[in-house]
Write a structure and sequence with these properties.
The protein is mainly beta. The chain has three helices and eleven strands, in the order ααβββββββββββα. The longest helix has 7 residues, at 4-10.
Length: 184
């Protein structure tokens, strides 16, 4: 059971609108891109499932472990584990007045919304800085036949600006020209 306030803050996980403006042209021209679909939206209910939940009120942490699945609207986040760090005097997850500071996800992260998907080894949401990061040996973003590969995706959640890094190698992009014809 999650409280409305907890849900409102954690909805940043899924409220990315995910890769809504994930156009091949935008990322093909630069690894710095504007992705308006990655902006926050806190207006939909959120559902969180996991094999277990441990809340440590003194540490202000909640640990969701085992087959974590978070759903908000058409967006789904799956991971092996999710840790929520929160703050606030006298606040707590169970009391519904926690202020979420950071959310860490790891152990095979999968994020999807409609036809758009991303996979990574781990990721985090820095709620104070409004930044979302996916990292790993191979971070893969896809929409239909358009595929973007790097090792680190950084998204500014309030603006949707995104950057895909190669981490020593090169960013790889595969674009399907037919997908551009349907978007115009």
């Amino acid at each position: 059971m999650t409280s409305p306030i907890f849900s409102r803050h954690v909805s940043a996980i899924l409220a990315l609108g995910f890769l809504g403006c994930f156009s091949g042209n935008a990322l093909a021209q630069s690894t710095n891109s504007q992705m308006d679909g990655l902006k926050l939206s806190n207006d939909q209910p959120i559902q969180i499932e996991s094999d277990s939940l441990e809340i440590r009120e003194q540490e202000k942490r909640a640990f969701f472990t085992g087959n974590v699945k978070v759903v908000q609207g058409t967006t789904t986040l799956q991971a092996g584990a999710m840790t929520v760090l929160y703050s606030g005097e006298g606040s707590g997850i169970t009391q519904g007045n926690a202020d979420i500071q950071k959310i860490d996800v790891n152990n095979k992260v999968f994020l999807s919304s409609g036809t758009q998907q991303a996979t990574a080894d781990s990721g985090y949401f820095d709620m104070e800085r409004q930044i979302f990061v996916l990292e790993g040996d191979r971070v893969v973003l896809s929409e239909g036949k358009n595929v973007f590969v790097g090792c680190k995706l950084t998204v500014q959640m309030t603006t949707g600006q995104a950057k895909l890094d190669s981490c020593g190698g090169r960013v790889q992009i595969q674009l399907d020209p037919k997908s551009q014809q349907t978007n115009n």
